[in-house]
Amino acid sequence: MNVYLDNNATTIVDPQVFAEMEPYFVQKYGNPNSLHAFASDTHPGLKTAMEKIYAGIHAPKEDSVVITSCATESNNWVLKSIYFQYILTGKKNHIIVSEVEHPSVIATAKFIESMGCKVTYLPINSEGIVEAQTVREHITDKTALVSVMWANNETGAIFPVEEIGEICAEHNVLFHTDAVQAIGKTPVDVQSFNVDYLTFSAHKFHGPKGVGALYIKKGKELMPLLHGGSQMGGYRSGTLNVAGIVGMGKAMEAAIDALDFEMTDVREMRDDFEDELLKIEDTFVVTPREKRTPNTILISFRGIEGESMLWDLNRAGIGASTGSACASEDLEANSVMEAIGAAEDLAHTAIRFSLSRYTTQEELDYTLKVVKTAVVRLRGISSSYAYAPEGHESGLDAHH
Ligand code: 7TS
Which of 21, 39, 92, 343 has the most CB atoms lying inside 10 A of its own CB? Predict the structure, then answer.
């Protein structure tokens, strides 16, 4: 049996999405900016797709949604543009991010820091959540931007973006949120709270890879990301990825249709699976489940290296993660676990299971069996587990 439980890394393309994209490769392949019927053949599909994308996040027509190639690109764009527009010009000198942002935010923040921008990396609390108050404490009159993700990719922790947006508005500071892990898992409405920029990526909600987006509120314009032929309202030149945009539109529509299912059925399956995992001795989950996206579990098995567990799972046909796939090649401690201050031995023990609307009960039952066998095998050969005394200080509160 093959079981895919790494949906926070990427997702299967919904077959309906694939079907909608296909004609744009082999029939309607014109460049939308050309002046003939091959071009205009692409226009209705593009228009419908953009309407679905706007509707999916409740963006009003006057705001911009710019299609990029991925969330990494959208995140880079926001921070670097703020650097050019506000920091380099001397209007402001500071930005705030959380210390558990995706590397596409953290590495960009480090880069602009090396160019002279002050950067505050906000801590998370013991539940893995950035508290809105900490944002208020760090804002100065020289702060240009706050960038805090909506939902964390490793723990699934949902951050208080409404409150953070409110604080930014009070202080006249721009607010960006990376909503990659929020689309299709929690309602996203850019008009229901203060947000200036919002990032998302099609391949995280059963759309194609290579298509991301950035929402930009009217009046909060950024510098163009790519200068050239003025596509995407001049923000991002380059021939449009027609099939990709059509795919993102359909995927957004399907994600909104499936939102209730994610929030009830997927959540229930996740909760039951987590209950069973937590029955295994010496297991820990950091963020309480009601404060998480419905599909994610980051769980530690004391005494077991995350990578060893992944290997046992992989041999049984199960794909999971020790955290972010982007960082999985190096054997570093899970960055969220480190940020929470978990003891060194636990920071290496985290495994992430992320479900989707395609996950079945049968797959989870099978995974549970495999995990139980792996725990016995790996703890049997674990020196750290053998020597860990009862009540060993973990730095974490057990949630069972
Ligand atoms: N932001 C968040 C919150 C993410 O989870 C990811 C990918 C990205 C940005 C980057 O998205 P992309 O469109 O540029 O690919 N996160 C993960 C992950 O958790 N495991 O692998 C990739």
Answer: 21
